[in-house]
């Protein structure tokens, strides 16, 4: 290995102490005291690696190493170091600290990169505090929305106040910071947060694409009635409608989806939610994802048919609102090719797999070619203190990141 595996392990373990909960969990909410403490510690590691650091007006921590040719578009590496309220030690940190390790290794090897390299710890990737995440990366690429700084956390603190408390003066007029053409490639290493690599018995994977989710909210309206007196054939039971749609949607995805399609009903609200009243109104969410947009569109059409048929059979009114519809974003072939070549030299035999969850990289993809490396994690558990990845696997992932980055930095 060319990276310094023990230095990287030290960094992971040291960062896991900040905001530690229980034996293995962390809570480092965006812009919080713990987040700031983590940013300060990681900033120190960036400086040891030879990066010049700054914390921008969105709370992003950015380290920069000037390349020999300043006219070349830069190479960017990064991920996030904020966490879920009940999160794990590796989500985000693996890629953020992995990026720093890459630059530190270049320095150890005496390599002066041709192009400038930046390593970014994006602020508020997780989104749990203000119920809207990937704030830092959206600031960088110009995808902030109206009123973003006015969003409040559960204690009534606005993002504006939280960022000031964190120590930066937010300024949305600075967005976007980067334009298409500024960045040659963005690379992110991340734990898989899924079970595919474990099932494949492989430590590392090369990502093909980040799948695009469709998020729908379905509302069904029937008529409330006494559970003891309304005969079955006269009911307009909204909950039964939701149950039927959920079951048929599940079968549809299983039977007609690609191996990559996933469909989930994850949240449901029932009114009046009483044991002896027939359900009058139900609202539930649908999450449908695939990297194959045609396959996804086809299933989406059939899902609407299921909803319509069920509502009509059960005598229910229905409406569907579309909350999110994002397209899958494909990793650049030329970056995947470099990864595959380097992977072969390292002998990892890493498979190619897609990402169901989104990452900072998804947003970077709108202004730059991007590539991602996944590291196996136990049972795919994440957003949970039980999240676990073997240090040996993480080091292999960072080694592949290093060789890929070195190639691009020298091109
Ligand atoms: Zn993450």
TrEMBL record:
It is an enzyme of class 3 (hydrolase). InterPro entries: Amidase_Cbmase, Bact_exopeptidase_dim_dom, Peptidase_M20, Peptidase_M20_dimer. The keyword Ribonucleoprotein does not apply. SUPFAM superfamilies: Bacterial exopeptidase dimerisation domain (SSF55031), Zn-dependent exopeptidases (SSF53187). Zn(2+) 2 binds at residues 91, 126, 383. Its EC number is 3.5.1.87. It comes from the Bacteria. Coiled coil: none annotated. Its cofactor is Zn(2+). GO terms for molecular function: hydrolase activity, acting on carbon-nitrogen (but not peptide) bonds, in linear amidines; metal ion binding; N-carbamoyl-L-amino-acid hydrolase activity. Residues 211-312 form the Peptidase M20 dimerisation domain. Binds 2 Zn(2+) ions per subunit. It holds the Pfam family Peptidase_M20. Zn(2+) 1 binds at residues 80, 91, 190. Keywords: Hydrolase, Metal-binding, Zinc. PANTHER family: ALLANTOATE AMIDOHYDROLASE, ALLANTOATE DEIMINASE-RELATED. Belongs to the peptidase M20 family. This is Allantoate amidohydrolase. It comes from Halobacillus halophilus (strain ATCC 35676 / DSM 2266 / JCM 20832 / KCTC 3685 / LMG 17431 / NBRC 102448 / NCIMB 2269) (Sporosarcina halophila).
